Amino acid sequence: MDSSAPIPIVAIVGRPNVGKSTLFNRYAGWRRALVADSPGLTRDRIAEELEIQGRAIRLVDTAGLDAAAERGLPAAVQAQAESAVRDADAILFVVDGKAGLLPEDEAIAQTLRRTRKPLSLLVNKIDNPRHHEDRLLDFYSLGFERLKGISAEHGGGAFDALEDLVDALPQHNDDAIPTDPAIPRIALVGRPNVGKSSLMNRLLGEERVVVSDEAGTTRDAIDIQFEYEGESYVLVDTAGMRRPGRREGTGERVGALMAVRALERAQVALVVVDAEEGLTDQDAHVARLARDMGVSVVIVANKRDRLDGEQRKLALEDVQHGLRFLEDAPIVSLSALTGAGLSRLLPAIRRVTEASLRRVPTAELNRWLADAIRRHDPGMARKGNRTTPLKFLYASQVGVQPPRFVIFCTDPDSVMVSYRRYLENRLRDSFGFEGCPLRVHLRGRRTPVE
Questions:
Q1: E strand or H helix that includes residue 420
Q2: Cis bond leading into 244, ω under 30°?
Q3: 259 near 289, Cβ under 8 Å?
Q4: CATH number, domain containing residue 150
């Protein structure tokens, strides 16, 4: 068993409409986009790994999984602040300088004062520091040491504020993440009220399951190891589904920070969706997060007991279409309430775990590469007015979980995105990389290897 240190998490918190998403996008360097041909269903990211002054961090938009918080439901907004205090390593507290200090800001500040973690108060919408400096004055009363005026829309002051906060992070994180490739570590993730807790209880309540609690190594995470038909599994961060008070008033609260914490300790994500209700934006957020964080994915279409045969078929088609960027992930239709379909879940988990650990011998990989090029020509490389044929030279696998490959070619910059996708799909189909992300890197080499 080896271990690795988690990347520090920086959480963006604040009441609705203060510019949190704009700030997140400013840092991440991209604009959010809709899934092609699917109006209303986004593939927005809620977490992004960044490098700030040579240090990796994971930036999280805490409202990304909680529509109630962005509608301004007070308890939901407070839950986001409490999640930041509990689960983040550092906090960016965003307020609206144009609107001024509001009671909702003061309530969030009261929660955030309980933490000793690095925190910066960012007064947004300071588009012209010379003329808007007076907008900062009211916010000094909140008593936070780091206070900066920024413009999330135009970027003014935003990166200086993030760099200052990262500088305040401890240099070493001693919360090692235990990993044993032979035992799948499973995170149950999904938007609120899709049945994650019920699924956990169903899994652990099966007669053939042997359960043992295992204290986690990070914060209040609790891992549960169990055996099913002679195979061992671990559910990670089950405390996130059993914390007291989370079912009061505003319903189940599994936020973005909790999902990130669970996924960084897992090898497999069970992305749970409500088959009866149908797919939502939040489901797509969770699925994208799991894929971006490099874990294998099994999609769980829960609540099949509430649907008849034809409705189940239509529900599965809806899930397949909405999450088609995860078309390689197996979908298991089940009922956490009755246990119907559960027998197919653990074999699917075992399959995607084995796929993520698969190594392809170099000789076999290069025979595959030659065949892939023969089937689909990579095209031409253009240098000014000159064009030359693109040549792919050789390939090597450099890692697992997720499987990582390096392919050497004469001009990586000239390889079209569609051809990169073709190579990835051919790899997946040829070697059975079911449910796991593939990382394919192209590197340049001037002359072909004879």
A1: helix 417-431
A2: no
A3: yes
A4: 3.40.50.300
Measuring CA to CA, which residue among 350, 182, 337 is closest to residue 270? 350
| Closest C-alpha among 325, 268, 277 to residue 298 | 268
Helix residue ranges, H only, 207-329: 256-264, 281-292, 309-322
- Which string of b and e fits 22-41 if b means at least 16 CB within 10 Å? bbbbbbbeeeeeebeeeeeb
State the Cα–Cα distance between residues 100 and 94, nearest whole angstrom. Answer: 12
Same domain for 307 and 417?
A: no
- What is the overall mean pLDDT for the chain? 82
How much is the pLDDT for 432? 94
In this prediction, residue 123 carries a pLDDT of 96
d(CA 427, CA 415): 17
Long-range contacts of 426-434 (CB under 8 A, 24+ apart): 426/368, 426/372, 426/375, 427/368, 428/328, 430/368, 431/358, 431/360, 431/368, 432/355, 432/358, 433/328, 433/355, 433/356, 433/358, 433/403, 434/328, 434/329, 434/330, 434/351, 434/352, 434/355
Q: Which residues constitute the domain of residue 404?
A: 362-444
Report how far Cα 44 is from the mean position of its chain's Cα atoms.
Answer: 10
pTM, rounded to two decimals: 0.73
Q: What is the pLDDT of residue 182?
A: 67
Judge if 34 and 141 occupy the same domain.
Answer: yes
